[in-house]
Amino acid sequence: LAHPASVDSIPSSANQEDHVSMGTIASRHAYQIIQNTRRVLAIEMIGAMQAVEYRGVDKMATHTKNFYTKGREQVSS
């Protein structure tokens, strides 16, 4: 997914390689990368929330506690 779409070449007419815009492929790859990143960050957030529960929710800063509370609204413990 991470390699540039411009290095790919596909046959476009009668199996003759021609200059083809790879913009659509690049945008699909970008979309998949974003979805993968969202999934990884969600897993990291769940792990962080569990770690906070071991340490103690009362020891968190205000902004961190807000982040934790909103996360737990989405994913229960």
UniProtKB/TrEMBL annotation:
Protein name per Swiss-Prot or TrEMBL: Aromatic amino acid lyase
Keywords annotated in UniProt: Lyase
SUPFAM superfamilies attached to this UniProt entry: L-aspartase-like
Keyword Lyase part of the UniProt annotation: yes
Molecular function GO terms recorded: ammonia-lyase activity
Domain of life: Bacteria
